[in-house]
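Replying to the earlier thread about multi-chain prediction with a worked example.

Input:
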Amino acid sequence: MSTVAKETMPDAQGHFGPYGGRFVPETLMHPLQELEDAWRRASSDLDFDHEFRYYLREFCGRPTSLYFAERLTRELGGAKIYLKREDLLHTGAHKINNAIGQILLAKRMGKTRIIAETGAGQHGVATATVAAMFGMKCVIYMGAVDCERQVLNVYRMKMLGAEVVPVHAGQKTLKEAVNEAMRDWVTNVRHTHYILGTAYGAHPYPVMVRNFQRVIGDEARRQIMEKEERVPDLLIACVGGGSNAIGLFYPFLEDQSVKMVGVEAGGEGIRPERHAARFQGGSLGVLQGTRSYILQDEHGQIQGTHSVSAGLDYAAVGPEHAWLHDEGRVEYTYATDDKALKAFQTLAKLEGIIPALESSHAIAECIVRAPKMRKDALIIVNLSGRGDKDVAQAAAKLGLQMPQ
Amino acid sequence: MSRIQQTFAHTRTENRAAFVAYVCAGDPDFATSLEVCRSLLANGVDILELGVPFSDPLADGLTNQLAAQRALESGMTAARVFELVRRIREFSQAPIVFYTYYNLVFANGVDAYVREAKAAGVDGILTLDLPPEEAAEVTTACAAHGVETVFIIAPTSPDERIARIAAAATGFLYYVSREGVTGVRDQMAANIPQAMARIRAHTKLPTVVGFGIGTRAQVAEVAAHADGVVVGSALVNCIRDHLAERDRIVPAIGARAADLSAGVRR
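Result:
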C-alpha cells in the first residue's frame, strides 16, 4: 500500500474506498458535522493533546509495557512473542484511551450528558469512569444477555454512578445496544455526547476512535525499536468493531515488512448465526451509520451472531478494516470459542496473565502462528484487556469446581 | 402528473392538508395488513406510507420496532412487501411511499430494487438512514425508473442542509417535528410554523410533518401549517391492542383513521 493511499484515507466524507461514510437519520447529520469540526480543531490544538496525554499518563497508567512472553515463546518454540499490555491500563482494557479522548471533546463542546453502548462492558466501564471524573451524567446501553454474562462490569458501572439500561430487543447483545444508544442520541443530541466505543459508525467516529487508539501502536513501535532495534514481523489483534486492532496496526501500515493479522470471533464455527466473523460470512451492507462487511441474509436483514466473548459478538466490522482487507494489507482470520478458551487458559498458566476472552482470540492465533516462524522472528500480540470480567463465565464453561 | 403531485394538487384545491398514514407492511400478517391498508384508504387516508420491516430500525420507537418484528416473524420479505403493494393497487390509486432503511434497498442492488418497486406500484421511497450526501445511487435509480424521492428535514438541520435536502427530493419533504424516534407524544413540538417558513424559503415541494402526532386535535393543529400530516404509531397501536383478536384490528384502525383524518378536513 502506498503512502499516498494512507494519507488520503478516509476522504473528506469519511470513506475508506467503498466503505465508511455517514448513514444516519437527518437529525444526527448536523451534530455529526459539529462533532467532526470540534474533533478537527482539537486535533490541531496542542493544549488538547497535552491534556489527553496527561490523563493517559497520570490516570490510565500509560505507557503500557511491551512485555516479552518468555515461557509462551519457549513453549511454542518459534517466534519471539511480545505482549502489548493494554490489560494493565486503569479499568482493564484499551477502551479507556478512546473514552478519555472523547470526554475531553465532549467537555469542549459543552455537552453535559454522556451515553454509550457496551458489549463486554469494558467500554461501558471506561465511559462511566470518565463521566465520573468530569461530573457528567452517564447512561450505558447493554444487551440483557451481555448484562448477565458480564455482570461484574454492570456492578462496576453502577458503582461509578452510571445508569445501566438493559436492552431486551432482538438477540439482546451489542448490536441492539448500539440501536438503543442511537435512539437516545437522536432524542437528546443537543446536550448529549455519544461516546461510541469502537472504530465503527458514522464519520467521524471510525477515524476519530482510531486516532485516539493509535497510541497503542505508536508506543509499541517505539518500544520494539528500543528492545530489538527493528520493527516486528507480525502484529496480531482481535477484531470486534476493530479499535484495538486499528490502534496497534495504524502506525505500522507503511512498514511493508510488518504483516498484520486481525482475528474475528469464529464462535461455534462458520455457520449462519453461530459466529461473528464478518470477513468469512459477511457481505457489503450498511448498518448503524456506516458501510462495511456485514453478516446479513439474502434480503438485507441483519443476522444473529454468536461468540463466547461479548465484545466480539457483533454483526459488522469497522470500515477501515474492510478497506485494509480488500487492499490485502491486513489478513483476517478467526478463532473459535474453544480455541479462545484454550488460549485463555494457556496464557494464565504459562505467563500468569488472565486475558480477556476477546484478547484470547488474538492469543489463539499467536499459538497457531508462532511455531511456524523462525526463532529470530518477532510477534507483537495486542493484549487488549484483562480477563477478570470473564472469570465466572470461563469457570462455568471449563467446569471448575469450588474447593470443598 | 404523478400520483403524489395529483394528491397534493387535489388537497390544495380543497384548501386542506393531506392525511398520511403509516403502517408496517405485513403487520401482524400479510392478509390482515392488506385489509388494514384497504380500511385506511377507505377512511380518509390520502397517502399510504408503508414501513418495510427491518431487523434494526434505529430511527423507530418501540411501537414501530415491535410492528417490524411482528411483520418479519410473519414471513415478510422484500418480495412479499412488493406483493402487498400489487394487491393494494388492485383497489386503490392512492400514492404509496416506502418508509425504509438503506440496507434493504442496497442489499440486492439499488437499481433493481427501485425498478421492482416501480413495477409493483410504489410512488416514492423515503430511506430513514440515507442523507442526500450518500444518496446519489438512489436518486439516480429513482429518476431512471420514475419513483419519487422523499427526504427528511429535522429541527437540527441548518438552512444550508435544508437547501441541499430539498434539492435531492422530488416527491415531498418530511419534517420531523422533534429530535427523537417515532412514537406518540402528549405534547406537540411548539415551533412548527417557524420551521415550515424556514423550509418554504428553500423549496416549493410539499412538506409533510410527522413524528409524535397521535390525536385529532394534534392533526388539526399541524394541518394548519403543513401540506400534509403523518400519523404512524397511533395507528400501529390499534394493531398492537387487538393482537389477541385479529378480526377486530381492521374495524378498529378504520375508525381511528376516520377520527384522525377528520383533523385535516375541518
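The CA atoms of residues 150 and 187 of chain A lie 28 Å apart.

Feel free to reuse this layout for your own posts.
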